[in-house]
């Protein structure tokens, strides 16, 4: 049986050798390797991880956005938006997680990796739709999950739970109309059982 820590150490060594100074941070947690790179080095790092001997991460199996604005009760102190990739090497039977932070919180943008892994196409569109992260070089960057007239990016931590607009079909106009949200904000309070001997507990 293969020792997970040894495998992770081997992956760490291979990734470090391949990326060199492009590595901002590299960790092993729970037997998994995570490497951080800057947005300036991101695209080249992706190509290197795909092609370098000892890496050969031919498949991108997931890509998502992350909003760190309320991470650890807003004590994170770094950039707000990150893109996280999970890469798989079928030929070497290994995985790595690649993270990159967008340099600008007001206009989060990183390079598209669609030219490196074409499976990134819809993942990047989803991260753009839900987080507002722009992928420079993506050939068809438009919303994929929300409606065409949707306002905002619903996975951002500051997005209101009720949204900004509501949509309904208007029979008189024979079309869909958008209107300001009319739902009053409310707080759901869970039911609390106050029986003194509930479930045999005292």
Q: H/E series, N to C? A: HEEHEEEEHEEE
Low-confidence stretches: 1-5
Classify the beta-strand content into a percent band. Answer: 25-35%
Class derived from helix and strand content:
alpha/beta
How does CATH name the architecture?
2-Layer Sandwich
Mean pLDDT: 88
Q: How far from one another are the termini?
A: 48 Å
Overall geometry comes to globular
CATH class division: Alpha Beta
The tally of beta strands, per DSSP, is 9
Number of helices: 3
- Helix fraction, binned, reads 10-25%
CATH fold-type name: Beta Polymerase, domain 2
Rg result: 22 Å
Question: What are its keywords?
Answer:
Beta Polymerase, domain 2, alpha/beta, single chain, 3 helices, 202 residues, two-stranded parallel sheet, five-stranded mixed β-sheet
Describe the structure.
Residues 1-5 have low confidence and may be disordered. The chain has 202 residues and is α/β, with parallel strands linked by helices. A five-stranded mixed sheet has the order 1-2-5-4-3. It has a two-stranded parallel ribbon with strand order 6-7. The protein starts with a helix and ends in a 22-residue tail after the last strand. The protein has helices at 4-19, 42-51, 120-131, and strands spanning 23-29, 32-37, 59-67, 81-89, 94-101, 109-111, 134-136, 165-170, 175-180. It has a single domain (4-146), classed as 2-Layer Sandwich (Beta Polymerase, domain 2). β8 (165-170) and β9 (175-180) form a beta hairpin.
């Amino acid at each position: 049986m293969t020792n997970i820590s040894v495998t992770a150490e081997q992956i760490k060594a291979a990734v470090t050798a391949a990326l060199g100074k492009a590595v901002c941070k590299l960790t092993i947690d729970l037997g998994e390797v995570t490497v951080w790179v800057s947005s300036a080095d991101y695209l080249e790092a992706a190509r290197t991880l795909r092609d370098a001997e000892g890496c050969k991460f031919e498949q991108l199996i997931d890509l998502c956005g992350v909003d760190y604005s309320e991470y650890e009760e807003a004590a994170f102190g770094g950039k707000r938006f990150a893109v996280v990739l999970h890469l798989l090497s079928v030929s070497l039977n290994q995985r790595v997680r690649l993270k990159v932070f967008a340099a600008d919180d007001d206009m989060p943008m990183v390079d598209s990796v669609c030219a490196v892994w074409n499976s990134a196409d819809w993942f990047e569109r989803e991260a753009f739709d839900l987080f507002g992260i722009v992928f420079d070089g993506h050939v068809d960057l438009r919303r994929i999950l929300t409606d065409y007239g949707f306002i905002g990016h619903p996975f951002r931590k500051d997005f209101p739970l009720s949204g900004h607009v509501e949509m309904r079909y208007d029979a008189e106009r024979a079309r869909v109309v958008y209107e300001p949200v009319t739902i009053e904000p409310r707080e759901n309070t869970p039911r609390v059982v106050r029986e003194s001997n509930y479930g045999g507990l005292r």
